[in-house]
TrEMBL record:
This is Phosphomannomutase. Its EC number is 5.4.2.8. GO terms for cellular component: cytosol; respiratory chain complex I. NCBIfam families: HAD-SF-IIB (TIGR01484). Homodimer. It comes from Caenorhabditis tropicalis. Residues 93-114 are annotated as: Disordered.
Length: 428
């Protein structure tokens, strides 16, 4: 029915493939009206119909198709669906060459007439068979479990490594053992390449490591970005990988699935001072000459403001170009020093964040903020980060007396240093 099912919840995959097999649709997923004579039944009690007749989908699946199609730019209708296809058009669909002979045509005279005719179809009983809903709700459906190589028994349909991680975590029922030690990770440059998504290998490494010791992650980015990088936009997967998840330096956080209170820089500093800071920053950045400038120079978040001279909407290639230019000219370092000189009096801190930004936050709202939630739970807190030098957004937590700091040079180095800690014989 659809040319690509990569974004669909995996529970639907077996059904989606079932409808394109060389056998008729079964009753399990469809309503039972207007389908012809039953000629067989499978081991699950699902009926088959003569002449490959297909049941008409009830409202539940119509809604599913609509939601499914929203995710795709390109769809195609398989020939098996044509018997129940209603073609609605203002171009006399009963004679239009693109309309299959065995579809049901409806000529309409505008949107209101379309709505009226659709309602008549629904009232006619073809798509609305409400008494099937209770039965569907109570029936148990068995789905084939994908294998570790992203395939089913036919060797197809699972291609997304994020889905593999979800299945791996569910199968292993991963929970961290009680431990005296916890490992805390930065995101960019530590678990992922800067601004990029985590690799399947690193995600699997975290899953295996968490069997031995609890894990936490603390990112300077907002929760949406942290989720995108570590779990492909899947919040549930992210929260299943770590015992604690902290975004925006810990100003937004979770223990398991339970959220901590969210902090607000707006409430802490006040709009007048924030506007003064933003106006100064925009003037300052307008006078910097760079190879390119793009958009989104000021990114206002719950607990911080990210100021980017190049603009956070730059491409990856432009980002890489700025990294080199900044390294040679100290663009962000000079910017942070000017901000400190003019606004340090307001109880604000300024740190180099990631590759293209300067982070602004109230004093004490650096990554050490997250330690308050874990310091009483563990004897030893190992922190792994890449921006650990003074002025970097990992420096404060790296140098804090409550942590054992580790400076890393990328995801592979992170794995190596974690393995060294685990091999060190420490009483975890």
């Amino acid at each position: 029915m659809v040319s690509n099912t990569a974004k669909v919840d995996p529970v639907w995959y077996p059904w989606l493939h079932h409808v394109t097999d060389e056998k008729p649709m079964t009753e399990s997923f469809m309503s039972v009206g207007r389908v012809g004579t039953v000629v067989g039944e499978d081991s699950f009690g699902n009926r088959f119909y003569e002449n490959n007749a297909y049941p008409v989908p009830n409202n539940r699946w119509v809604e599913f198709f609509v939601n499914l199609w929203k995710d795709y730019d390109s769809t195609q209708i398989e020939s098996e669906w044509l018997p129940w296809l209603h073609h609605v058009s203002n171009d006399n669909p009963t004679t239009h060459s693109s309309v299959p002979d065995n579809s049901n045509g409806h000529t309409v005279e505008g949107p209101e007439d379309t709505k009226k005719q659709v309602e008549e179809v629904l009232r006619g009983g073809e798509l609305s068979i409400e008494d099937q809903h209770a039965e569907l709700d109570n029936r148990e459906f068995e789905f084939e479990t994908p294998t570790a190589d992203h395939s089913n028994s036919r060797g197809d349909f699972i291609t997304d490594p994020v889905l593999e991680a979800i299945e791996s975590a569910e199968k292993q029922k991963i929970t961290s053992p009680r431990s005296k030690t916890i490992l805390v990770f930065d995101v960019d440059g530590t678990l992922t390449a800067a601004g990029q998504q985590i690799t399947p290998e690193m995600r699997e490494f975290l899953i295996e490591t968490r069997k031995r010791v609890p894990l936490a992650v603390v990112g300077g980015s907002d929760f949406k970005k942290v989720t995108e990088q570590l779990a492909g936009h899947d919040k549930d997967l992210l929260l299943s990988l770590f015992d604690y998840v902290f975004a925006e330096n810990g100003l937004l956080g979770f223990k398991g699935t339970e959220p901590y209170p969210v902090q607000s820089i707006q409430k802490a500093i006040g709009d007048d001072k924030l506007q003064e800071l933003i106006n100064f920053s925009l003037r300052y950045m307008s006078e910097i000459h760079l190879p390119v400038k793009r958009g989104n120079f000021v990114d206002f978040r719950n607990g911080m403001i990210k100021l980017s001279p190049i603009g956070r909407s730059c491409s990856q290639e432009e980002r890489n170009q700025f990294v080199i230019f900044d390294r040679e000219n100290g663009i962000r370092q000079k910017f942070a020093e000017e901000l400190q000189k003019n606004f340090g009096k307001y109880g604000l801190q300024f740190a180099i964040g990631g590759q293209i930004s300067v982070n602004v936050f109230p004093t004490g709202w650096d990554k050490t903020f997250c330690l308050q939630y874990i310091q009483d739970q563990y004897d030893t807190i190992h922190f792994f980060g890449d921006k650990t030098a003074p002025g970097g957004n990992d420096h404060e937590i790296f140098a804090d007396e409550r942590t054992v700091g580790h400076t890393v040079e990328g995801p592979e180095d992170t794995k190596q240093q974690v393995e060294d800690v685990l091999r060190g014989g420490e009483d975890l």
